[in-house]
Design brief:
The protein has about 625 residues and is α+β, with helices and mostly antiparallel strands. It is built from 14 helices and 27 strands. The longest helix is centred in the C-terminal third of the chain and has 20 residues, at about 540-560.
């Protein structure tokens, strides 16, 4: 701060930066659903929130069930709905679609004097067969009243009551015999020799209509809307409510609108802005009317299609552009690729992650982001040998991986689990990723992400009622040893169904071949990077280096005290920030850690010694 004249200035120097806490169990899913926006990640925070946004899970689509299993333990996730191209929005027409005739009404006649001097009137109209007629009515006899004129017209046209007077002999109303949008009445001539005025101008025109109907369409495709009712309930003569009711008659939403485009809540604009579910298509020229004393109007939504029956790997994998639903944004799994847009820690696609294409895509996204790990589900009905061959890329048939799944950013669990299905009755078999994501969330709530999400303390599963296979000790050795990395879920006789492994899919032996260490590193990298970014563009000098170390060291000490680390060291000085690094605009730092390992293989030696021996001599 530079001062040019004497005085006192105060300033604040904030050197109190610290590493903020971050969420460690946030799930991201892709899958089909019966409602909801398409190819847009939606934040979900409870089971009720999921059903409200995407409807009840579909029997043969596992993503919805996985979401609800996670939400039984976790409280934040992202769900992206995908469709197969056959999706459709539900719609209905509400109103009176009876064809209407053309009605032309003259202004009230103010001066009937000298009406007897009127000699003719020219009219074009459409008759009952939609044929245009053009006539000139000559008043042969003297006319002295509006009724005389109406009588003369009716005699000439011979259409009886279709042209008649209204009011107290001071209006003339011309009504076409034909109905619908083609019906018309036009005044082509008014011949007067006196001062009479029938209230018409030459070329005054009226047309009929096909009826005043408002078409309602759901904003998103899906069968969830089918058989729901759209009810129009009067509020006053100018406004009415649009009410969406479930098939059981429960109100979903209510919106106050007007059919008058001059109103602020004009129906098309108001539903676009305020309704979560409906849009309206309406032509103001139809002159829709629903008065305060009128009965409700209603229509039933039909035609909604989910677009899930023919989902392909391409739909799940996603692309970077699709015009209709995302305006050119990413779709499918690609919505999760940009680390700066959405934060999560766990990625899954339960319906198709067993495939070569999707398992590779899941791993690639997680490795590219560097802040999350994927849960890869095996196919259903695989035995011990089959699932090992599948994850090694050796299982023939299907669209299975063509090479071994190998990455510390992914893990696989086996077998599938059986649940009671509260939505459709009976039971259902589900891939394990939904349950495992819930286990991660429960692990973090009970302990920390660097604790192994397995074993009897944090890996017990209470919701499944059965599993496909329960691997015995020999099978578990085969799944978990010799470089294989399938985490078994086991049904123990007394302890029940339990996650009994925590390997990542990394085949190279290192600390990162364990889930607890991988999750610790994911958390540390994200937390430290999120706080370090506030030093970008600061002077690259010892002061900033010390500020960074002073921010990181207390964080690591807290991790050490919480049993995440055995030891650590932080370095950012002239040894890491060399003159060349300074010239290149870089400020490298180094964090060396000894992560805590889980006790997976506990051996206890019982040592027998002679009676006179000193026991201390035999201690390790």
């Amino acid at each position: 701060m530079i001062m040019l004249s004497p005085g006192v200035e105060t300033r604040e120097l904030d050197y109190s930066m610290y590493i903020r806490q971050i969420s460690t169990a946030v799930l991201a899913l892709v899958g089909g659903a019966t409602k909801g926006e398409v190819n847009k990640p939606i934040l979900i925070t409870s089971p009720e929130d999921y059903v409200r946004n995407f409807g009840e899970p579909v029997r043969d689509v596992y993503a919805g069930y996985a979401a609800l299993r996670f939400l039984s333990e976790g409280n934040r996730m992202w769900f992206t709905r995908i469709v197969d191209g056959n999706e459709a929005k539900a719609e209905t027409d509400v109103g009176d679609d009876t064809p209407k005739p053309a009605v032309l009404v003259g202004d009230p006649v103010e001066n009937i004097g000298d009406i007897e001097d009127m000699d003719s009137i020219g009219i074009d109209y459409t008759d009952g067969e939609n044929t245009t007629q053009s006539i000139t009515v000559e008043f042969v006899e003297t006319v002295s009243t509006i009724t005389d004129i109406i009588t003369a017209i009716n005699d000439e046209v011979a259409i009886g009551e279709d042209i008649a007077s209204e009011g107290d002999n001071d209006n003339i109303v011309l009504t076409s015999q034909g109905d619908g949008a083609d019906a018309a009445v036009t005044i082509t001539a008014v011949s007067l020799s006196g001062t009479a005025d029938l209230g018409f101008e030459v070329n005054d025109e009226a047309t009929g209509s096909d009826g005043a109907v408002i078409t309602f369409e759901t904003k998103d495709p899906g069968s969830w809307f089918n058989n729901m009712d759209v009810v129009l309930h009067p509020f006053d003569d100018d406004e009415f409510y649009v009410i969406l009711l479930t098939e059981e008659g429960l109100e979903v939403e209510r919106t106050l609108v007007s059919a008058d485009p001059t109103f602020d809540n004009y129906i098309e604009d108001e539903l676009d802005d305020s309704s979560d579910y409906l849009t309206a298509i309406y032509d103001p020229d139809d002159s829709f009317q629903l008065g305060a004393d009128d009965d409700d109007l209603e229509g039933t939504l039909t035609g909604g299609e989910d677009g899930i029956d023919e989902l392909t790997y391409t739909d799940y994998e996603g692309t970077v552009t699709i015009p209709e639903y995302s305006g050119g944004a990413a779709t499918g799994l690609q919505v999760y690729r940009n680390v700066e847009e959405i934060e999560f820690n766990i990625l899954a696609a339960p319906d198709v992650s067993y495939s070569d294409v999707i398992s590779s895509e899941l791993i690639d996204i997680c490795e590219t982001r560097g802040d999350c790990m994927a849960l890869i589900d095996p196919p259903m009905e695989l035995g011990v040998q089959d699932v090992v061959e599948w994850h090694n890329g050796d299982l023939e048939g299907g669209d299975y991986p063509s090479q071994a799944l190998s990455s510390s950013y992914a893990a696989t669990y086996w077998p599938w689990l059986k649940y009671s299905d509260p939505f459709h009755g009976g039971s259902i078999w589900l891939p394990p990723s939904g349950e495992i994501s819930a286990t991660y969330a429960r692990n973090d709530r009970m302990a920390y992400p660097w604790f192994a999400p397995a074993g009897h303390q944090r890996g017990s599963l209470n919701k499944p009622i059965d599993l496909e296979h329960s691997a015995n000790s020999g099978a578990r050795d085969y799944l978990y040893g010799d470089g294989d990395a399938v985490n078994p879920i086991v049904n123990f006789t007394r302890e029940g169904i339990t996650v009994w492994g925590q390997r990542t899919l990394q085949r190279r032996p290192s600390a990162l071949d364990r889930v607890n260490v991988r999750r610790l590193l994911l958390m540390m990298r994200k937390a430290i990077a999120a706080s370090t970014k506030y030093l970008v563009f600061e002077p690259n000098d010892e002061f900033t280096w010390n500020e960074w170390e002073g921010m990181v060291e207390p964080y690591l000490e807290g991790l050490k005290n919480s049993r995440a680390l055995y030891d650590y060291m932080v370095q950012m000085d002239e040894n890491t920030v060399t003159p060349q690094a300074i010239d290149q605009g870089r400020m490298p730092g180094q964090i060396i850690i000894k992560p805590t390992k889980a006790a997976e293989f506990i051996t206890i030696d019982f040592v027998l010694v002679r009676t006179g021996a000193e026991i201390e001599e035999y201690l390790a």
